[in-house]
Amino acid sequence: MQNIMAELSFNVDHGYLEGLVRGMKAGILTQTEYNNLAQCDTLDDMKLHLQSTDYGKLLSSSEDNLTVSLVDTKLRENLVTEFSCLRSNALPPLSTFLDYITCFSKNVFDAI
Q1: Cis peptide before 92 (omega within 30 of 0)
Q2: Is the pTM of this model over 0.70?
Q3: pLDDT in tens, 2-20
Q4: Cα-based distances in Å from 46 to 25, 40, 60
Q5: How many domains does the chain have?
Q6: CA-CA distances (angstroms) from residue 19 to 24, 36, 70, 81, 109?
Q7: Residues in the chain with pLDDT < 70?
Q8: What local confidence, expressed as pLDDT, does residue 2 receive?
Q9: What pLDDT is recorded for position 29?
Q10: Range of 97's domain?
Q11: What is the DSSP string of 60-112?
Q12: Which member of 40, 67, 73, 90 has the greatest number of CB atoms within 10 A?
């Protein structure tokens, strides 16, 4: 009986996050899109291919010349923003797990 009640309240507690994650998953590059990026000779070609994806808005907002470090910075900022959104809307035990991921990733990236 308790399992049934947990299932009935799933959307109340976790439905918004599930929708966010499904939306983020839909924005991940497909194999075809990735193969097209692998064929790019310049960063401008890459920017052109990415404009039709969810990543296009990240690079189109930049006024600076496109560099590898700029692309890296924009992608990292986007990752942090999306992760922070998930973390701020999560309830335990997911929020605890996401806190562990944050601590672990800081330890890993500080070691590099």
Answers
A1: no
A2: yes
A3: 677 777 777 888 889 999 9
A4: 21, 6, 12
A5: 1
A6: 9, 28, 30, 16, 29
A7: 1-2, 107-112
A8: 66
A9: 94
A10: 2-111
A11: HT--SPP-HHHHHHHHHHHHHHHHHHHHHH--TTHHHHHHHHHHHHHHHHHH-
A12: 90
